[in-house]
Amino acid sequence: MKLDDEVIAHIAKILQIAILSGTDVTDGLRMMRLFEEDGLLFLEDEYNNNFDENIDRMLDQVNTSTDI
Fold it and tell me: Pick from 12, 41, 8, 6: which is nearest to 25 by CA?
């Protein structure tokens, strides 16, 4: 099996978030949900949507705290 390019890019995002937030990168990797199709691993849609929503919430919190 191989990782789809989107999965590889997502792993890079997880690493970046871990560096910025001071969290353990393994926690982010453990939460990642994948499915296999034709020998490729892809991100599950629900997981990907939840991840994006969490990032948006984090950015909103940063923007709100800098507006003070």
Answer: 12
> Which residue carries 């020998």 as its tokens?
39
Longest dimension (CA), the chain: 51
pTM of the model: 0.84
| 18-62 pLDDT, tens digit each | 998 899 999 999 999 999 999 999 999 999 999 999 999 988 888
Half-sphere exposure of residue 32: CA atoms within 13 angstroms, side-chain side: 22
Sheet holding 40-43, edge to edge: 2-3, 40-43, 34-37
As a whole number of angstroms, the distance between CA 6 and CA 17 comes to 16
What is the Cα–Cα distance from 22 to 33, expressed in whole angstroms? 22
